[in-house]
């Protein structure tokens, strides 16, 4: 069945989002996708979706949705005030939103992005297999106030008898949610773990400088990368650096006196020195960093970086299993929900 969510408020910028394009970089197209991949994955898992399913991302302002039938939602990402009707609800947990009742997300703070997942498959245009926006490719995916979001869903509420049986057993529904830590307060410093690159030695003193300097995200930052104010140094030699591939999270020192941390929409090659790489476990934190945020870098070895990422993956798998078991106790099987949604004909050229 189809649930329709009427969009009554969209804040500064609201778009469709997922984890990005698979294999697109072989064609020269950045993978794109959610800047905070962890929060997007958890939101989907909490409502029984695959972690890479389409969902809604909102940056700043207020987001409000009104469904025409009962839906299961989860709100993750930056701290925010979330209500269903007049009732404040918890983030990072599955929540039932009754038909005709408004879900509103406001007062987004400390981070920049919130994610709203709906149990089921969002109908949205796709480009190279993904709903992720790419403005440079003419694929903005902007959700406007007054528009409607359609979701193919198998959710029809929970079994009342199962709810009664579990009413006194909160532990049975407790989920091991790996919530992202955003640091302390609006002005708090966030720590980003980094590993060395092969080019670090070409920029003398940069290792020590990165470890000692407090950097600030500037308003020149965008989806291509975070531009940081703070001390940098440059190669002593004028020897040309041959352009080479650069991954998401690369720490780049351009000619200007700034440090750039490349994001999911960066150019795929660069000829500037790359002095390090943010670890995969730190990328979601960078995805939440907005103008004015203070960042401090911490060098770690590759083994530690791999182990931290493996631990995060273990947490996500544990959450997926716990959600499946909890829903089974409530008489709901997300497996009945379509695994994907097709774009509406004529909306945009797609490749599936």
What ranges have pLDDT less than 50 throughout 5 or more consecutive residues? Answer: 339-352
Give the helix tally. Answer: 5
Overall average residue pLDDT: 89
Alpha-beta content class: alpha+beta
> How many strands, which pairing sense, and closed or not: the largest β-sheet?
7 strands, antiparallel
Q: Could you spell the SSE succession in H and E letters?
A: EEHEEEEEEEEEEHEHEEEEEEEHEH
Euclidean distance between termini CA atoms: 22 Å
Radius of gyration of CA atoms, rounded to a whole number: 21 Å
Proportion of helical residues: 10-25%
Q: How many distinct beta strands?
A: 21
Shape: elongated
Share of residues in strands: 25-35%
Domain module count: 2
| Strand arrangement across the biggest beta sheet | 7-6-9-4-1-12-11
